[in-house]
Design brief:
Elements (H helix, E strand, L loop, with lengths): L2 E8 L6 E3 L3 E15 L8 E12 L5 E2 L6 E4 L4 E3 L8 E5 L14 E2 L4 E9 L7 E10 L11 E9 L1 H16 L1
Parallel strand pairs: 1-12
Antiparallel strand pairs: 2-3, 3-4, 3-8, 4-10, 5-9, 6-7, 6-11, 11-12
Amino acid sequence: MPHHHHRNVARSADELVVRGNYFEISIIEILLDATVKPLIYDDELKRLILFETIYANQWDYRLKTHFPEPILIDGEGFQHSAYSLCSDAVIHKSKQMKVGTNILPVANEIEGHAKSRGWIAFPFLEKSVVPHRIIFQTNVFDPGYTCGSVRDSETLELIFDLSLFGKLLSNETKKQKN
């Protein structure tokens, strides 16, 4: 079974994209500190990092997006698993988004040559620690199938230049002052 690994180092907000043979994944917006109510009928609040993401299926057939889940590696080298968001998740507190904003997850499956826009969540990191890499993995099955024998797989790795988060943090501080 072949395996492909694609990497991109993002030094600016315009470079927050990584393209593989099957998926192109773009980060549209980053919220470094958001309190989210993941389930509308549950009072539990979670403090999370949110990435608004577009998954673009480059292949002719349907692909799964949620297995395996994306992984975040922080600036200290620790690995964090994605947190599952339900379709009724809402923002409870964020400096960049209005309270009550619905944050939809990326679709579990994306048809051939289609796109899905949604949010990926990770546990909140302490202020001195920033995201360094996000790793997305895809298993590809026979055309028309989303399970069974894996015929190909690929890893997409988006590496954040640490200066990029310095810029994002300073922009966040400027927004707070205005």
